[in-house]
């Protein structure tokens, strides 16, 4: 159980939910894990539990992302893996593209779409110095189902995944994404409530995903087992979507 021995992996949004499950699983397989989140109290608790490092990070800020790289390099010497999981989700407002408050829309996209790019721009040089690395972006099946601003940001994440795979592939840095289906986190319970029961009826596998269901794909994409896989978006969704 040491696939990630001597590897340093940054997981954004790891203070709770799916990111926390990634952080815990990576630590269990030997990685030095950096919990990068805005939520100091919960983030510090996860980091302490897994013997990792908490760095308060705002993924929408280039300064914050660069400060994280400095802090991680000082602590662990460099970065091998990055999981761009952070997003505004649980507290998200519902609105239409034609009426959403413009400042809210800009803020939302700066976290949910640009955040993956901001973090990648800060981290890739460190990966290059280590001889390569792996980046996993958190998309969503929402990208295939609707393009309200939440889905639209994930469409953007899918585009970033494809483009960055090409820009970074020559340096041995791979970029892939996971598209989770409806997953039972506190954020989803807050967002969807009883609507999830209806959603589940349309899945091939008739239950909500659990954060742990995402872990296998994430660790596969971060590990050498996927060394010739890049630019891909893997749906882990109980059969919610099908793309031929
Ligand atoms: P969550 O809301 O529980 O966790 C998100 C984390 O991101 C929180 O810890 C929050 O503090 C952090 N965060 C928010 N803004 C940030 C910022 N600017 N900088 C740094 N950290 C920030 O969400 P959950 O359910 O764990 O989802 C995680 C990811 O998976 C998100 O990208 C979400 O869009 C995606 N996803 C979730 C699904 C679900 O059903 N739960 C389905 C498909 C995708």
Automatic annotation (TrEMBL):
Signal peptide: none annotated. It comes from the Bacteria. SMART domains: PKS_KR. Residues 7-214 form the Ketoreductase domain. InterPro entries: KR_dom (IPR057326), NAD(P)-bd_dom_sf (IPR036291), SDR_fam (IPR002347). Keywords: NAD, Oxidoreductase. One of its GO terms (molecular function) is oxidoreductase activity. Transmembrane segments: none annotated. The keyword Oxidoreductase applies. CDD domains: SDR_c (cd05233). The keyword Amino-acid biosynthesis does not apply. Belongs to the short-chain dehydrogenases/reductases (SDR) family. This is NAD(P)-dependent dehydrogenase, short-chain alcohol dehydrogenase family. It comes from Nocardioides lianchengensis. The lineage of its organism: Bacteria, Bacillati, Actinomycetota, Actinomycetes, Propionibacteriales.
């Amino acid at each position: 159980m040491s696939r990630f021995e001597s590897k340093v992996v940054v997981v954004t949004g790891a203070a709770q939910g799916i990111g926390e499950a990634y952080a815990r699983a990576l630590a269990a397989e030997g990685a030095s894990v950096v919990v990068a989140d805005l939520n100091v109290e919960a983030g510090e608790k996860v980091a302490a539990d897994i013997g990792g490092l908490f760095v308060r990070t705002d993924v929408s800020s280039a300064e914050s992302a660069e400060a994280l790289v400095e802090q991680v390099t000082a602590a662990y010497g460099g970065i091998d893996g990055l999981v761009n999981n952070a997003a505004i989700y649980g507290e998200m407002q519902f609105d239409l593209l034609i009426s959403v408050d413009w400042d809210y829309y800009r803020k939302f996209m700066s976290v949910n779409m640009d955040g993956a790019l901001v973090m990648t721009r800060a981290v890739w040089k460190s990966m290059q110095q280590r001889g390569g690395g792996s980046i996993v972006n958190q998309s969503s099946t929402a990208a295939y189902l609707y393009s309200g601003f939440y889905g639209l940001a994930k469409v953007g994440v899918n585009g970033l995944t494809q483009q960055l795979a090409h820009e970074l592939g020559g340096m041995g840095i791979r970029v892939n994404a996971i598209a989770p289906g409806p997953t039972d986190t506190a954020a989803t319970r807050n967002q969807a409530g009883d609507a999830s029961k209806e959603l589940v009826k349309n899945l091939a596998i008739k239950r909500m995903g659990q954060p742990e269901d995402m872990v296998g794909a994430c660790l596969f994409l971060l590990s050498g087992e996927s060394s010739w896989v890049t630019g891909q978006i893997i749906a882990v969704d109980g059969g919610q979507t099908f793309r031929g």
